[in-house]
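[agent] plan:
  1. take the single chain provided in the ticket
  2. run structure prediction with default settings
  3. attach structure tokens to the ticket
  4. add a short note for the reviewer (M.T.)
[agent] executing step 1
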Amino acid sequence: MPATGKVPDDYDRASELKVFDESKAGVKGLVDSGVSMVPRMFIRPPDKSGTSNVRFNFPVIDLHGMEDDPIRRKQMVEAVREASETLGFFTVVNHGIPETLLEEMMDGTRRFYEQDNEVKKEFYTRDQTREVIYNSNFDLYISKAASWRDTLYCLLAPHPLDPEQLPATCRDILMEYKEEIMRLGHKLLELLSEALGLNRNHLKDMDCAEGLAMVCHYYPACPQPELTMGTTNHSDNDFLTILLQDQIGGLQVLHQDQWVDVLPMPGALVINIGDLMQLITNDRFKSVEHRVLANQRGPRVSVACFFSTSHLPSSKIYEPIKELLSEENPPKYRGTTVRDYVLYYRSKGLDGTSALPHFML
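[agent] step 2 finished; step 3 output follows
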């Protein structure tokens, strides 16, 4: 097939998707079978936004002394406020999670994907109401082009998950990492609350950390990375995301219409504001588009932790926080449950547009 990525008129996309999905082997299965060209179902038109050639100084916030140094804490709050209002992303170091635990979480993810495919297949499903889901591209049948990645999704809170439901290859580390991430998430929500001028427990008391989904991505090496994406551009449908990524790189954030690299840092975690946080802060904090490039190096592994109750039924309505509103700053969004927001987001897939405008007044 020509490198232009043009698709013949007689191309039967539906059949190609079906064969791929029914293999239950994901993108890794394609790579293991020896593909030397990207299959048509993954080929996407080039992105119109430019890529910045300038070395971007990504905010790095040192959390050391957060609990016992009031001056340092004030500086952290200010740094979190500036990053959340402008870029929507920042990196944290000295966050309290041992680097050995981060490495074991990455190793556990690799073990899951690199085990025998017959064992892995037991977890393969397109039933998005399940608490443990392995598949490739949740929006496979509605996206214009598939992305070059496989995913293990685990909904670990608010309801305690029976560890026996988790894959044996990474069960223990998933449960241990979850506890560390919940603790860090509470600390970050305190800083974000203070950055809004609110009581430090405000966002926690709103149950912004009630739910947690852990999503382990596996991006195999790609023979023609210029033709596809690891993850297409999107924003996150949660309150807050904590990302662990390996050293291969590929994560980019859209800033002033330019894609800028989020360079990996050993031991660091990447934090980003989600759509629901932008909604409840009435656009004060920004949920920003980001993407992951496909790469000839690989596999790339990442673990994203999303603070959200996801699709679970809930009557709790989230709307712009009243303390942040005024005559000059009236509410921009109608109230929604997390479930309604997530279901709308999933129904449109990762199509490069935000779900937020759908909920604007």
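[agent] step 4 note for reviewer: The two ends are 47 Å apart (CA to CA).
[agent] ticket updated
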